[in-house]
Amino acid sequence: MNGITQEDTHRAIERVARESYGRLVAYLSVHTHDLASAEDALSSALVSALTHWPEDGVPQNPEAWLMTAARRSLIDVVRHQRVAKASEPTLKLLEEDSMETIVAAEFPDERLKLLFVCAHPAIDSAMHTPLMLQTVLGLDAARIAQAFLIAPKTMGQRLFRAKTKIRSGGIPFEIPRERDLPERLDAVLEAIYAAFGIGWDDMAGADQRGRNLAEEALWLARALLQLMPGEPEIQGLLALMLHCEARRPARRGRDGRYIPLSEQDPKQWSLPLIEEAEQHLAEAFKQGRSGRFQLEAAIQSVHAERARGGRTDWRAIVLFYEQLLRVSPALGTRAGYAAAVAEANGPEAGLVVLERIDPDTVSHYQPYWAVRAHLLQRLGKNREAADAYDRAIDLAEDPAVREFLLQKRG
Amino acid sequence: MQFALLIYHTPQEFDMRKNNYSNPHLGAWRAYYRALVDAGVYVGADALEVPETGTTVRLRDGKRRVQDGPYADTKEQLAGFIILELPSVDAALEWASRCPGASIGAVEVRPLAKEALRRGFTG
Question: Which CATH number covers residue B59?
């Protein structure tokens, strides 16, 4: 009886590729530092799985099968390059453990090292997220380029350049020392959050592309938490993203119209996601080591009170923002703080906070102009408000947001 | 592995050299050098004369073209280099950030090419 169809096999390959990609790339590159070769070897292993598995059936341990096939192809490649003396140590390292032991035993999970490599300070920070998406999740350059709104060829070149630096630049494949860890971990979290942000901004209603990237970011954060259990900032980031994710269905009207947080119907928010977020945040706070992502999640948690029929406690939000400003005085934090102060203490107070920001830094920062326009309008300063709305509308990338602001401008 | 710290000076820093030994900046460099030697990471180093003393040569279409001055027309110019033996770029970045040259101009960290590549050049 042969109940397994070709489709089942393909699905099995897809699943193991998704779940094991980062683990396999990390393991294959941890000694060689050569990400590109590891990825090539894994691709050919996946191709070989596509031909063998439908005939022979899906192996009992698909990950080990792929690992064996990938190592074989990596060794072949290194043998071909033997002219270059430098490859000898690589070959030795690869052949050190015999294939049999790999198949039989669990191989160590080196993904954590890989995540720290991708977000290394010697790598252009704009490339941290793309590198993670490619090496840990196996997204191709064209897909990443699409999400980052740049030409696929350019993205391919930048990824190639970053990998060359990783291979030859002396970037260590290791978990940073204790004293460097907070800063280095922060870069990893930033990169994951950036992926989520792109998925988020991109979400024009039912846009599948954006949705997926946000899911990939959640997956990365969960994988990271599994590798560093109990790390409060990882749980903070996860809680933050889950809170945002919970509101996804409420962010757009049926006609695709943009709905701001204050006007969203909390009945449309996902309670299970909110609960999961709250759990992570509670566990994180128990550690007593506060941080940027925990505080941002705490702000979202206050907003989430509305889901349980509560009102938004703006004073609590103001307090969290004040703590947040101490650890991360980013522009977005300052604009958010101004908006919260305006809700708690009135628009004048909010405007005072806004005006403390250096005007040179905000000329291209959309949220600043949106908040400013809103506060001026509430104060009845309609001419000034209209000017600020114009700036905010000009800078808005999302057509639905632009439409929303145009209507508010009147 | 070995790393080069390439030290780029601003015109202001090149000017400081004229004040010679009275300059406290020089004291910082001496302390830095001592720290490198004490840490056992120092391989070698040298300083270059001011950029105005440089001459750039290109051979194009069989003709030698000589240009007065350095190759790049930028504000910061190569002023010297230090070679260090270090375990990773992390350590190199740390030493670079302690270098007195980083506080005014810039210090570029670059790994020395692998032995195999070097042997390709030298035979």
Answer: 3.30.70.1060
